[in-house]
Specification:
The protein is α/β, with parallel strands linked by helices and 300 residues long. Helices cover 37% and strands 22% of the residues. It has 10 helices and 13 strands. The strands form 3 sheets. The chain has a 5-stranded mixed sheet with strand order 3-2-1-4-8, with helices on both faces. A 5-stranded mixed sheet has the order 11-10-9-12-13, with helices on both faces. A 3-stranded antiparallel sheet has the order 5-6-7. Strand 2 and strand 3 form a beta hairpin. The longest helix is centred in the last third of the chain and has 25 residues. It is globular, with a radius of gyration of 20 Å.
Length: 300
């Protein structure tokens, strides 16, 4: 029984535009307890994060905590732990999350991009476990990426490594949320799949309906999804040309709810790369808790 008191737990936090989740993890980053609160974004960061802080101080602080790891939408200044101008966190601009938690819990805190921590989870305990280098791609409301080498996140000089949302993959003049014209996110994210299909069909259509029509062999939608796979394959090919990762992991709701497109993407990637036999593309397997588990690995 004496060893139990020496166990050091870790707290992980996943900040999203809709909800904020926090978890108590053991040393293997298994989730022991978790809570979720609605993120009332327009009320500002302190209003929302104070609820998490209160729970930590009242319920978890006495257990013996190593530190707090936080996954947060970017763009971020990762070195200082500051949110810069996250589109999903209006009124949170230039808020220092790291400083806030350290001052209010007295616990060491590390902050990183939400895609980075999800990618770290897949590299540490997910579908790419054991790989030396991993590039994680999430295709959901946005398109994000993470480069993990030797189980460490590569942040880059300005915290922008892996920000593939801005990769130019075609000549489309559409700009999504101020990103570059023809960028990966503006062509391949869930809202933009919906946008392209709505323009094609002349009526409003959401992303799940797009894929239902695709499964039912709607000719116009087949063309849109084929273009989606083509555009994603271009992005992946560019990543392979620059990084040459051992494993690429695909995640996010667009991928995980539509697994039939993964093989199409793989084949299109193989058509474009030099070393076809080296292409190893896997599907993410941790699911909704990847952000929570990955954030826990920020604490050593």
């Amino acid at each position: 029984m004496g060893n139990i008191s020496k166990v050091k737990y870790i707290i992980s936090i996943d900040i999203g535009g809709t909800n904020i989740r926090a978890a108590l993890l053991d040393e293997e980053r298994h989730i022991l307890e978790k809570i979720k609160i609605k993120n009332e974004v327009d009320n500002g960061p302190e209003y929302n994060l104070s609820k998490i802080v209160n729970h930590i101080n009242e319920k978890w602080l006495s257990k013996g905590i190593k530190g707090i790891g936080i996954g947060c939408p970017g763009p971020l200044d990762i070195k200082s732990g500051t949110i810069l101008r996250a589109p999903n966190l209006r009124s949170w601009d230039n808020f220092n999350v790291k400083k806030y938690f350290e001052e209010n819990t007295s616990l060491k805190t590390e902050v990183n991009n939400d895609a980075n921590v999800a990618g770290l989870a897949e590299a540490m305990v997910g579908s790419a476990k054991g790989a030396e280098s991993v590039f994680y791609i999430t295709v959901s409301t946005g398109v994000g990426g993470a480069l993990i080498i030797d189980n460490k996140i590569i942040n880059g000089a300005n915290s922008f490594a892996g920000e593939i949302c801005n990769l130019i993959i075609n000549e489309d003049k559409y700009s999504h949320s101020g990103l570059v014209n023809g960028g990966l996110e503006g062509q391949c994210s869930g809202p933009n799949i919906s946008r392209l299909a709505s323009e094609k069909l002349g009526r409003k259509i959401d992303t799940p309906e797009v894929f239902e029509l695709y499964k039912n062999n709607n000719t116009e939608i087949i063309e849109i999804i084929d273009n989606l796979c083509e555009n994603l394959s271009k992005g992946i090919c560019n990543i392979i040309s620059i990084v040459d990762p051992e494993v690429i992991v695909l995640g996010g709701s667009v991928i995980l709810y539509n697994l039939s497109i993964v093989e199409i993407i793989k084949e299109k990637v193989k058509e474009k790369v030099i070393n076809k036999d080296s292409v190893d593309i896997r599907v993410a397997k941790i699911g909704d808790d990847s952000g929570l588990r990955g954030a826990g690995f920020l604490i050593k």
